[in-house]
Design goal:
This protein has 562 residues and is of the alpha+beta class. The protein folds into three domains: 160 residues, DNA ligase, ATP-dependent, N-terminal domain (DNA ligase i, domain 1, Orthogonal Bundle), CATH 1.10.3260.10; 194 residues, 2-Layer Sandwich (D-amino Acid Aminotransferase, Chain A, domain 1); 127 residues, Beta Barrel (OB fold (Dihydrolipoamide Acetyltransferase, E2P)). 41% of the residues lie in helices and 21% in strands. A hairpin with a 2-residue loop joins strand 6 and strand 7. The chain is globular and about 70 Å long. The protein starts with a helix and ends in a 9-residue tail after the last helix. Bound molecules: adenosine monophosphate.
Length: 562
């Protein structure tokens, strides 16, 4: 028999109970050492709250609502008990454990029944992910029911946490790298490099256990195995980027699209999203373009796709997302929503990793193989005025801003460092009024931390919601705000409060989208509170008419979908 799942659960409980990093790393490393090789990757994934390795394309496709219905069936419990448990703990896993414990149904766990093993849990996850076609929903639900039916309350807690992807033990990927390094005696930097190459620490842990340091050192990139993308930090302005990059830098247009990682070997092309999901099937015309234009046998490269209107100017982001979500009827929608690809980096070429080459060299090689595909527009300069003009030009062309890339920087997968800066020009902030608030999650579960923001309709005087956000306020501010909102609540329930429109906040956002979600038909994208404006009365706040005006103004730069 393999290692029982309850041992992994015990480990997670101990992790949850401490916040000492060293202690956590030691516990996990000795656990990993005890496992059989084939249990290593599944365990690492589950400890990190994942059913599968990171780059794996399989998903469980099980919503919390579905899981909740199954728990109701299995425990036959009054759901109010769950809600109350959730309010007290702020954690779906803990609440699940409590209802399992209080369940009136005598579950048939007999002495003869074998305990769940780690591998058995993985096998059931695999079966859930594989269920497809007619009746697949029922099949998946039956499998989840079987799994939870075999679980003890504490096992159920963690199964649910893994299924909804919310482990919250505080043991993150960086610590897992340390644990793997310690468990299998491989220096930390070699583990990190291997994770960069493979994109998943679970797979690396397995290799470390079976092949040691040598196995990890011999790793190279493999086409069709996505790697973590390099990320950018925010710079306030072009001056900061120039200064940080030593007096001169390469500015590129920051396109408001979707990042894709393109892998090609011969005629075969696969495309991965920023989150490393395979999106090849959604982008047939891009696949075709790559086959036709790219002049290399084997490549891994990166670019941004944007949706464009008839005149070639960018369409709002929401139309692009529709293309990515689409699985059926791609042909019809690809006629309506045209895509354009801009390439910006080359990571691997004909058997060779290019990540250690300077940016400028990689870009030169990229230009050589790109055929007629455009690269992102670029300006190399140390002159702030020129850079500022380039930024205005990008924004006026309907793009988000600029990315500044240090000329001699290597490509650092998965790292958000100072080698790349993003410089955005946000739209003018709005002063909006809080009309309702909901309790947060996890650490914020007793706090009203999710705010509904409204603008006044000049014609009717009504305050209409245009967005919702839990971003921007500090913990201290949230605690104070919770008190204020509770005192003025006109309606209060388990989810939160409704308040009269009194408190004005300044809100930044990236775009105003058309949306059926709210009565006014618009919604702010990426709203975040930048200031509490107690100096303003609700009458002085911005109006729906103003929001509408900004919405319309966006189309001076962006295209509209006909
Ligand atoms: P953010 O998502 O705000 O962290 O900004 C980084 C993102 O900008 C990347 O993940 C890309 O999707 C996107 N992006 C747009 N244009 C470029 C560019 N020229 N170079 C790199 N990233 C870009």
């Amino acid at each position: 028999m393999g290692t029982p799942f309850r041992e992994l659960v015990g480990l997670c409980e101990s992790l949850e109970a401490t916040s000492k990093r060293n202690a956590m790393v030691s516990m996990v490393s000795s656990f990993l050492r005890r496992l059989r090789p084939e249990e290593v990757e599944p365990s690492v994934s589950m400890i990190l709250g994942r059913a599968f390795p990171k780059w794996d394309q399989r998903t469980l496709e099980i919503s919390w609502t579905t899981i909740a219905n199954i728990i109701k069936r299995l425990t036959n419990i009054d759901w109010k008990i769950f809600i109350e448990a959730f309010r007290q703990t702020g954690d779906i896993g803990d609440a699940t454990k409590i209802v399992f414990e209080k369940s009136k149904v005598k579950r048939q766990v007999t002495l003869l029944e074998k305990p769940l093993t780690i591998l058995e849990v993985r096998r059931i996850f695999e079966a859930i992910a594989q269920a497809c076609g007619v009746g697949s929903r029922e099949k998946r639900e039956r499998l989840v029911e079987t799994l939870l039916g075999k679980a003890s309350p504490i096992e159920a807690k963690y199964l649910v946490k893994i299924m909804i992807g919310e482990m919250r033990t505080g043991f993150h990927e960086g610590l897992m790298e340390l644990a793997v390094s310690k468990a299998f005696n491989v220096p930390e930097n070699i583990v990190q490099r291997a994770v960069m190459m493979r994109g998943d620490v679970g797979e690396v842990a397995y290799m470390a256990k079976t092949g040691g340091k040598e196995a990890l050192l011999s790793l190279g990139f493999r086409v069709f195995h996505p790697i973590k993308p390099m990320l950018a930090q925010t710079a306030e302005n072009v001056e900061e980027a120039i200064k940080e990059h030593g007096g001169k830098t390469a500015f590129e247009y920051k396109l408001d699209g979707a990042r894709i990682q393109i892998h090609k070997r011969g005629e075969e092309v696969r495309i991965f999203s920023r989150r490393l999901t395979d999106v090849t099937a959604s982008l047939p015309e891009i696949v075709e373009l790559i086959r036709r234009e790219i002049n290399a046998k084997e490549v891994i490269m990166e670019g941004e796709v944007i949706a464009v209107g008839e005149d070639g100017s960018p369409l709002p982001f929401q139309h692009l997302m529709r293309r990515f979500r689409r699985i059926r009827g791609i042909e019809a929608v690809s006629k309506r929503i045209k895509l354009q690809l801009f390439l910006f980096d080359l990571i691997y070429l004909n058997g060779e990793s290019l990540i250690d080459l300077p940016y400028i060299e990689r870009r030169r090689k990229l230009a050589e193989i790109a055929g007629r595909i455009s690269l992102t527009k670029q300006l190399i300069t140390g002159n702030p005025e020129q850079a500022q003009k380039f930024l205005e030009e990008a924004v006026n062309a309907g793009h988000e801003g600029l990315v500044a890339k240090m000329l001699d920087s290597p490509y650092t997968p998965g790292i958000r460092g100072k080698k790349w800066f993003k410089i955005k020009k946000t739209l003018e902030p709005l002063d909006l009024v809080i009309v309702a608030a909901e309790y947060g999650y996890g650490k914020r579960h007793g706090w009203l931390s999710d705010y509904y923001l409204a603008a006044r309709d000049e014609e009717t005087g009504e305050f209409l919601v245009v967005g919702k956000t839990f971003k921007g306020l500090t913990d201290k501010e949230i605690i104070k705000m919770t008190k204020r909102l509770k005192e003025m609540a006109i309606e209060e329930n388990a989810r939160g409060v409704v308040v009269p429109p009194k408190i004005v906040v300044e809100v930044a956002y990236n775009e105003i989208q058309k949306s059926p979600k709210y009565k006014c038909g618009m919604a702010l994208r990426f709203a975040r509170i930048t200031r509490i404006r107690d100096d303003k009365t609700p009458e002085e706040a911005d109006t729906i008419q103003k929001v509408k005006e900004i919405y319309e103004k966006q189309f001076e730069k962006k295209a509209r979908l006909a």
